[in-house]
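Z., the sequence and structure:
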Amino acid sequence: QVQLVESGGGLVQAGGSLRLSCAASGSIFSINAMSWYRQALGNQRELVATITSGGNTNYADSVKGRFTVSRDNAKNTMYLQMNNLKPEDTAVYYCNARLVGRQWELEYWGQGTQVTVSS
């Protein structure tokens, strides 16, 4: 069964740090672009960061300089290092990836992990 599983969310005070992980499992040949999205209560889901298979990255303006996205292709895992967290970063964080199998390529979503930043 192919799936994405996030981990690393939690409760942190403003100014603190968290590291999220997103691991892909199952019969996967490769992974193309991987992204982190977040959705705060009452808001639409928004793109936070993207990393290509070659390691090129892109960030939302609201997280530039504070968040760093990376990936370990050998482990089929993507990370999001979040520093200097702010209350407005509170949201459910989702990973998204285009996974490639033997004769398919599909977009997958993880189940989400809650990040709560207290002031």
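The chain has a mean pLDDT of 96. The CA atoms of residues 35 and 50 lie 4 Å apart.

Let me know what you think.
H.
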